[in-house]
Amino acid sequence: MAFSEGQQNGNRGVKDTVQIPEKEAPNGTEEAGSRNEGLGNNLSFSLANSSAQNGNPNKNQNDTYLDDEYQDYNPQYGQGNDGPTWSLAQPLPHIVRPGMRHGALPEDRKENAEDLKRRSEDPSQKSAAQKQQVADTRVKQNKDTDQEGFFNTWTKIRHYLREPMAEWLGTTVAMTIGLCATLSNFTSNGQAGSYPAQSAAWGFGFMVAIYTTGGISGGHMNPAISISLSVFRGFPARKCLIYIAAQLLGAITAGGFAYALYHDAIVEIAAASKVPQNASAAMSALITMPKSFVHPATAFFTEFVGSAILIGAILALGDDTNAPPGAGMQAFVLGILITVIILALGYNTGGCFNCARDFGPRLVALMAGWGGHLFREYHAWWVWGPWCADISGALFGALIYDIAIFTGGESPVNYPPRRRKRAVRARSLNLRKKLGLGKRRIGDLERSVRETEE
């Protein structure tokens, strides 16, 4: 490339113009070629985002680099989950529950022949038989798919246990962070933490866990949340029981981790205070307990109100007809919400608002030799506080939100009266048959169910 005229005038002492060969990149200028080389040809394992892969043809729809042969060796990749996910990281799914499903009542089944003919002729409408056939075909395809793509035993186990394992992992991560922050505060006499700091640790610990597992299990990590979603949003009851078991196991795992990591600090503070280990300040960090001056009714309704606010906010964040936050922000908002609830309502009782949060570490403390009195103190607080108060408060909060705001048919609040009555009696009848309880009343329940169909 030759010097410009201005450059030549500025260098009049130079007799000859020096020719510098121009270096062209294969796809344009050198700068553009360098940029393309960094973006298109090299893999970027970035913690920021996947947008650095722009220009690379080997990308899937999520903008993630995908090797041409990757799917040949990982056939399960990209299949996705056809079922709904009740996730705290995204809007809650809209489903049709049995109480609202067409055909639940006799008048639903009184369709005239013209309507049936119209449905069969309209290609946009599928009959119930066609829908069932499509569902059966999908189940068969899923079963066929389940038998393929497992390269070892563990991948097959994980395929069937992925959701409960994600729930266990999320609970373990969230509660390990929260318990360790609380132990750090109590065992250091406030030198390595404070109450606002431990409240933030609990909130953002759950935020991290929701981001980690929200796309797989939903990131409930709280039996009260799973039960409320089962009652008011159609979360399957059988899956709800599995989630609760995984959450309790995760809480026990987190309690074990926290106790092991802070064992030396617990022993040190007990020796410095000249009290037994089970009477040291560490007990208040592992378990929740009302203050000695707090009346039992006050303790109960503190947990009740806190759980009601938590569940009401979760349903609001998951309601796409309300004002849900932007993509990826729900977990962040929930982290702030949990922090604020513990700061505002946690002083009286220790800020549980989660059945698993208290039960898991309490069981670990029992195994660590702290004594069975942990399950008898304050009139067996662990039963009527973290379990009764939190679950009833969560159900009440969900009920109030649905009464005041929610309009979806998946909530029993919006059932027609006959459907609601029939759904309650049918559920009671099925439960009694499964458990073998009250056999004398089964006949009465069957008769009452039939009466609602007449």
TrEMBL record:
<feature type="transmembrane region" description="Helical">
    <location>
        <begin position="199"/>
        <end position="219"/>
    </location>
</feature>
<dbReference type="GO" id="GO:0015250">
    <property type="term" value="F:water channel activity"/>
</dbReference>
<dbReference type="InterPro" id="IPR023271">
    <property type="entry name" value="Aquaporin-like"/>
</dbReference>
<keyword id="KW-1133">Transmembrane helix</keyword>
<dbReference type="Pfam" id="PF00230">
    <property type="entry name" value="MIP"/>
</dbReference>
<feature type="compositionally biased region" description="Polar residues">
    <location>
        <begin position="1"/>
        <end position="11"/>
    </location>
</feature>
<dbReference type="GO" id="GO:0005886">
    <property type="term" value="C:plasma membrane"/>
</dbReference>
<protein>
    <recommendedName>
        <fullName>Aquaporin</fullName>
    </recommendedName>
</protein>
<feature type="region of interest" description="Disordered">
    <location>
        <begin position="1"/>
        <end position="144"/>
    </location>
</feature>
<feature type="compositionally biased region" description="Polar residues">
    <location>
        <begin position="55"/>
        <end position="64"/>
    </location>
</feature>
<dbReference type="InterPro" id="IPR022357">
    <property type="entry name" value="MIP_CS"/>
</dbReference>
<feature type="transmembrane region" description="Helical">
    <location>
        <begin position="240"/>
        <end position="262"/>
    </location>
</feature>
<keyword id="KW-0677">Repeat</keyword>
<keyword id="KW-0813">Transport</keyword>
<dbReference type="InterPro" id="IPR000425">
    <property type="entry name" value="MIP"/>
</dbReference>
<feature type="compositionally biased region" description="Low complexity">
    <location>
        <begin position="41"/>
        <end position="54"/>
    </location>
</feature>
<feature type="compositionally biased region" description="Basic and acidic residues">
    <location>
        <begin position="104"/>
        <end position="124"/>
    </location>
</feature>
<feature type="compositionally biased region" description="Polar residues">
    <location>
        <begin position="73"/>
        <end position="88"/>
    </location>
</feature>
<feature type="transmembrane region" description="Helical">
    <location>
        <begin position="293"/>
        <end position="317"/>
    </location>
</feature>
<keyword id="KW-0472">Membrane</keyword>
<feature type="transmembrane region" description="Helical">
    <location>
        <begin position="168"/>
        <end position="187"/>
    </location>
</feature>
<keyword id="KW-0812">Transmembrane</keyword>
<dbReference type="GO" id="GO:0015254">
    <property type="term" value="F:glycerol channel activity"/>
</dbReference>
<feature type="transmembrane region" description="Helical">
    <location>
        <begin position="329"/>
        <end position="347"/>
    </location>
</feature>
<comment type="similarity">
    <text>Belongs to the MIP/aquaporin (TC 1.A.8) family.</text>
</comment>
<dbReference type="InterPro" id="IPR050363">
    <property type="entry name" value="MIP/Aquaporin"/>
</dbReference>
